[in-house]
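Assess this one:
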Amino acid sequence: MSASQNRTHLLVADQNMIDAVRRHQAELASLTVGSQKVTPADIVKVFQDRLTVAQAQVSAEAARIAAVKANRDMRARTATFVSSFKRIIQGMFSQSPDTLAEFGLKALKAGKKTVAVKATAVAKNKATRTARNTMGSKQKKKVKGAAPSANTGPTPSPSPSTTAAPVPATAPTTPHA
């Protein structure tokens, strides 16, 4: 059972006691509870006080939940503004740690990349250059075009009748018995 179900159950139980005491006042005219003599009015007052305090707790809890939600909503709505403002202050007073401390801030630190992050970046860069066939300035210098031959006319292609097809060499086979 959850806390709210327990609380509800207790509230109902206390209210049932009040109702039953009022219905049976004649039989409960004078009782000794513990070491005290009590009347039905005293009994009802004890249970009514318990109900009043429990209902105050329920109201306070509902108010607390509403306040927490309002706080979270406000922080969510203003998060980008606050973040931007902090960055501006850190930029303005980056050379003055005392002033930053007054704002409750510290100077920005340069991010340090891990070896794994650097290795991944190198691998991605290499893959991208390969995929795009891009070259650096030194690689471009190594690329040389073929010089045109002295004969600038079209070269005749060999005719099929003059070209002998290569004959594949076959190994002699011996019959198996």
Summary: The two ends are 91 Å apart (CA to CA). The mean pLDDT is 84.
